[in-house]
Amino acid sequence: MEKKEREEMVMVVPRDQVPDFQGFMAVGRDYVLALSSLGRYMKRSLAEEDPSFKQLIPYAIIMSGGQVFKYRRGVKGGESRLHGLISVGVGGHISAVDEDLFGEAYDKAFERELSEEVAMAPVLSNAVLGLINDDSNPVGRVHLGVVHLITLEIPEVKSREKALLDAGFVPLDELRSRYAELETWSQICLDNWNRIHD
């Protein structure tokens, strides 16, 4: 008899514990760790349909030499509602597997997700800059983004995921010219660029 694969358990935070805002809100790492301490784990299939909870999603913008890493979400990605859209954020769910790792579950989840998706040049800095909330669409209603800004020594990022297509570094102006092709969270990041990258 074939063994059934266990469903992923993802970290969620009660919606009533999330600040009431839309768009971008500047916060630091300590705030995010305090928020994640209010979290619990829920089956992903349930979390995707329950707007009374928000799934906490690290969302890393990677930069080098004044350019921004971007990719297009392929059909093999986990979130079908985002397929084909351009993203400037790399990251993913905080899974129950991260609870067993030493250190802060959030930090470990972020490191794991990033290493699963990309191989990068040496990191110069990694700063938590804020939260993204967008209740205007079904994806946004059940997710809360945590914006990181990662600066690399050189612009070298290689995708480890088939779901990350057309990946590479581009000038900010190119992203602005393709604004309509960006997923909502990436649009919010561009709209608040002066607060993300000073």
Précis, in short:
This protein has 198 residues and is of the alpha+beta class. It has helices spanning 29-36, 44-47, 105-117, 138-141, 172-177, 184-191, 193-196, and strands spanning 9-14, 23-26, 40-43, 53-64, 67-73, 86-87, 118-120, 123-133, 143-152, 157-159, 164-171. It has one domain: Nucleoside Triphosphate Pyrophosphohydrolase, CATH 3.90.79.10.
Protein described:
The chain has 198 residues and is α+β, with helices and mostly antiparallel strands. The protein has helices at residues 29-36, 44-47, 105-117, 138-141, 172-177, 184-191, 193-196, and strands spanning 9-14, 23-26, 40-43, 53-64, 67-73, 86-87, 118-120, 123-133, 143-152, 157-159, 164-171. The N and C termini lie far apart (57 Å). It has one domain: Alpha-Beta Complex (Nucleoside Triphosphate Pyrophosphohydrolase), CATH 3.90.79. The strands form 2 sheets. Strands 1, 2, 3, 4, 5, 6, 8, 9 and 11 form a 9-stranded mixed sheet that branches.
Structural class: alpha+beta
Mean pLDDT rating: 87
Q: Could you name the CATH class? A: Alpha Beta
What share of the residues lie within helices?
A: 10-25%
The global form is globular
